[in-house]
Amino acid sequence: MLAFVMEELREWRERRMRKSVVATVLLLAAVSAVSVLQPLALALAATGAFIVLGWTEGNRYQSSLSSRRILLSFPLSSRAIAAGKAISALAVLAFVALAAAPLLALSAIAWGVRPSAAAACVLSWIACYYATLCAGFASSLVFPGSDGLPGAFIAALWLASSAFLKQLAPSNPFAQVLAILKDESGRGYFLGMGATVLVATAVLAAASIAISAIRRRQHGR
Amino acid sequence: MRERTLLSIALPLLLALLCPPASAARLEATLGFGGYAVPGRWNPLWIRCDGAAASAKLLVVRETAGGRAIGRESFGLPAGGRVECPVWAADGLESVSVRLASADGILAELRLSATSRIFPGHLVLACGLSARARLAIASVLLPSEPLQAVAVAEGDLPSNGLDYDGVSAAAIGDSGAGLSPAQREALLAWIAGGGRLVVFSARPGKDSLLGSLSLGESASSYGLGSIVRITRDLAAEGGVAAWRPLLALEPYGRAPRISASSVATGSRAGGNPDEAARKARLALLVAVAAWLAATAGAAVLGRGRRGSGALAIATVAAISLALVLAGRPALDRALMRGATARAVAIVLPESGSVLVSASVKGPVPSEAFAWTAIRARLPLAVAYAAGSEGGSAEWAHGLPRAAFSPLSTGGDDLALSAVLGRRAMAGSTMPAPPLIDSPYAMAFIEAGAANPWWIKMPGARWEKIAETPSWLQEEARWLLGLREGRPGLSFVVGKGDAPSLGLSVAGGPLQELCWTVPLAGALAGPLAEGGR
Q1: B369 vs A105: CB contact, 8 Å cut-off?
Q2: How many domains would you assign to chain B?
């Protein structure tokens, strides 16, 4: 599995690292300049950036891409591949977050954000990144010719419904960071993060089953 | 059987629909003593709430004639259901709305007029006095001006020093040591600032009212205030001639009392918070631009070389992060956490209490972000959060009893006042003797002198100077105004982040505070003489 993780990270470093880092950093810097490092604006922008980053990291195993062939032919069980994908993607998140960390720290210090609130925001970002990563990963495997549209639709539905339905609000990453930074009662939002991670893990498990099915079909041919 | 089951389901449903919901929350509120508000002073607002869930909160909204909110405060519900909230009776204040709110909306609402019963004159608290005695008190300054003698139960005496702001004198029957510690502290701070307390039916010993205040039986003065102790029962005393010397009131406006309103506007003197906020914003944007340039440079320089791009970006990020974290104290000082605070305080040494007022300029834009936490290091730490609702900031009290109260919460500007008592000041090193040798910048304003300014020179030597010290330019108007209203008093003035007196905003470092200690003539003379 370590070999798979290293291979994924190597590929990311050579092909997508600059794009991911520069896009995230530019977005956050632009929001900082407009809002004078206002943590609420910055946290919302970071949430959006990590959602998109998670999706692009997951949704890159379409039938037209060589990454799909490498993934399916890697000599590992489908479960190990799914787990390796999650680990490598979290390493990618850690690197991008490290690049953006000085800006986020500057904002937190300048506006006096409590360390516990900052830590809760980081948890929320990890949860939403992981959710869209799993959604994109499963979508690109199950619908190889669709450019990930069905998965994107479901992810958008999740974000929209949780934005408009009060009962689902705790699972909305934007609502989570708003609640954390505005010092509202956070227990429901932590449950929402937990539920998001659980559902995403179930989707990752489904992706692992999909890998097995695709492999069986390929060998059957 | 089936009918019976249906009936057992339908009957409770029908009853639930027909019966009104269980006991609704009840809200009662009174503004001012006896319903009288003294304009330009802090007035007590008492709120009583029964039958509400513990999660509900009380909102106090001050409104102008046009219904515009000029201040919002919120309190959690206390165990006894009673809240004491000082309200500043500003010029434009028309009404005060008290709302009981929960997550489901407004449960109950009351609107109190702040202009229907106003009394711009002396207000005397009468505790245990008959109507005849109160009428006599109300006549002691006639025919020049009437007084308002308000009957107050001992349990209803304020527990917040701000609420004594409009009270000129108090006549209290000694019923023993029945006052709570907070009530005693508020009463002492008021006397120390120049209040006059008349205790009748006075008892001897520690169980008496004066004993519980730690004032001796022979005490006739305390700080700038005075105490009259009479063993006779004055409850039914109806003679104006008897009350006149006991209350010893001067015409309203000439009374040289140091009250919470003496300090309330000082924090807004001088300075340009907008300029400070602009500099803070510029500093932040320069830091962001530098970081962006370094990250972009690392990404470009590492291009094409295997692995070196990631290494360069990671290195830049790590160095920038280390710089930000290491530079945090400097950032705190330079940015003041995005806020500008100006604070002034009057220290009343004998009671160990402090009248403090602070003006906080929030960062822009601060809407929709609960950012402000004020901590007075006295050494009491109180942390509150100011959020915002409907365009006007809301001052959320951390306790059912208000410690700091908002003078105004308009826009990003937040002006707060408090009378902090002896308990809050425990361990303070402010009172007189160490004051003179302290390392802080200090001045002396001499009573009655045409040129009142003295400054402390090295070696604890005082030197008379021709004009206002440069470091007190911003507060000079406030200080001289304070002196004009009280010609018999001299003032020691200090500025700097004194160890036991300061203000920090949003958990930031202690910020500069201008403090003054009023000294009665007898004390001021030797102090000034000693320096010459």
Answers
A1: no
A2: 4
Containing structural domain, residue B508? 338-532
Distance between CA atoms of residues A34 and A48, nearest Å:
17
What token pair was written down for A51? 């959602």
Q: CB neighbours (10 Å) of residue B2?
A: 6
Q: Give domain status of residue B49, yes or no.
A: yes
Residue B300 located in a structural domain = yes
pLDDT digits 0-9 by tens, B199-218: 999 888 888 899 988 888 88
To test the contact with chain B by mutation, choose from A17, A25, A106 the residue with the greatest count of B C-beta atoms within 10 A, namely A106
Which residue of B279, B323, B324, B331 is the best one to mutate when testing the A interface, meaning the one whose CB has the most A CBs within 10 A? B324
pLDDT tens-place string over residues B251-272: 887 777 888 888 877 766 655 5
Sheet holding B503-505, edge to edge: B374-376, B503-505, B510-511
Examine the domain organization and report whether B421 and B502 are in the same domain. yes
Coil, helix or strand at residue A81: helix
Query: Are B513 and B480 contained in the same domain?
Result: yes
Task: Verify whether the Cβ–Cβ distance B310 to A106 is below 8 Å.
Answer: no
| Residue B14 lies inside a defined structural domain of this protein | no
Residue B13 lies in a domain: no
Q: How many residues does chain A have?
A: 221
Q: CA–CA separation, B108 vs B100, rounded Å?
A: 5
How high is the ipTM of this complex?
0.80
Residue among B485, B483, B458 nearest B472 (CA): B483
**A122 and B CB contact within 8 Å:** no
- Residues 131 through 190 of chain A touching chain B, CB cutoff 8 Å: 181-183
B371 and B291 together in one domain: no
- Chain A residues touching B331 at Cβ < 8 A: 106, 109-110
Same domain? B68 vs B198: no
B205 and B327 share one domain: no
- CATH number of the domain encompassing residue B109: 2.60.40.10
d(CA B173, CA B57): 36
